[in-house]
Design goal:
- The chain is α/β, with parallel strands linked by helices and 326 residues long.
- Helices cover 44% and strands 18% of the residues.
Amino acid sequence: MKKTGLIHLMLVLVLSTTALADKPFTIKLGVVTKPGAAQNIMAEKFKELVEARSNGAYTVKIYHSASIGNETEILQQIQMGTIHMGVITGGPFDTFDPVVRVINYPFLFKDHDQADRILDGPLGDEILKSLETSGFKGLCFSENGFRNLTNSKREVTGPDQVKGLKIRVMSSALHKAIWQALGANPTPMPWPIYTELEQGVIDGQENPLWVMEVYKFYEIQKYMTLTRHVYSPHINVASLNWFNRLPAADQSLIIDAATESAKFQRKDNREKNADRLALLREKGMQVVDNPDIDAFRKRVAGLKDLDLYREPRVRDLLVRMLAAVE
């Protein structure tokens, strides 16, 4: 190739690269839920902040309603880098990093303040850092909420009434173990599950209050018990390879926007819970406000000795977490 031709080619490549750099980069963010859900509120606030603060350098495209797969599949795509970020329930991380099982330990947190203190502190940071071994950049925790049991068969005031109920659970070894210990027939099933509940494929499910409202489970689930058996966070993650290639200033932008969005979403979620509960009662759900929590606790007390927590680093973190919430 002649020298002038080589110079021309190099100039074209430089100009092309510059032109591409001048265009906004689209951050692809996956959530499994539909607009109005807790994950989406977090994602939409993040989009608002990033686009406003990046001076046009970034746009955020939210892939919602499981349009790109269930939560496990979204996590796999984040690992591969085909999706940049996700707002994901803690349970599906089981198969990627067993350390996350510690957060979902039954009856771990007594209230929101305690959950915030732990997850926003050193122990929460340790969990987020651990996710790097699986290819994720852990950014922060937003909120799914305290999980409660619903079913279509009978009122549940204690674990004895749970026996035999076919309960949908996330794809999580721990969540399956919890409901086995309570005597239920846990059935792992991807989201959404309205049709399966309606057709009687499963008897019930367990989720925070917002789920019953947004997904209208009051239409197909007559009984709800405020078990609050697990505090369920959402873990906001990015592809580690993608994140590490970003300039330091852009990394800070994303971390700050995610953290601020998580705090916004948690506050929003909690402020709505009283109205949600009133709505569910108004729609006809029969709510057990004060089940026999001590009996539930006793049935799951042995879970800390399961193989799920045998790995030394997981066991160590669980011991320290349990000590921190005493």
